[in-house]
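Bumping with the actual sequence this time:
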Amino acid sequence: MKRITTVLKESEAMAVRKAVCVAGGERIVITPMPHSLCDIDLEEWHCEQSIAQRGMHVRFEVTADDNYSGGIVSAIQRIAHVGKIALASRHDRPHRCAAQI
């Protein structure tokens, strides 16, 4: 399983969500972000820009099977103007109790 995370403009979130669902995304979480955190994640913003110019941003996180992760990243890049996409793998470990019989 892969967890794919990025920061999007709020106006792009629903279109990206639909594209990610079609591409094979299993669990999608969209979380509003305070402007102070957006400044850290989106380095292209300049200090002189007002909050109104920047717009609201959301943290977009999707969990998907490893086979679909490439298609999901492509779907995000096709629709959204993102700066950085983070991929993280989640490896499931077998339970110790099940192994000791």
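The tokens above came from a reply further down the thread. The domain at 2-99 is CATH 3.30.70.120 (Alpha-Beta Plaits).
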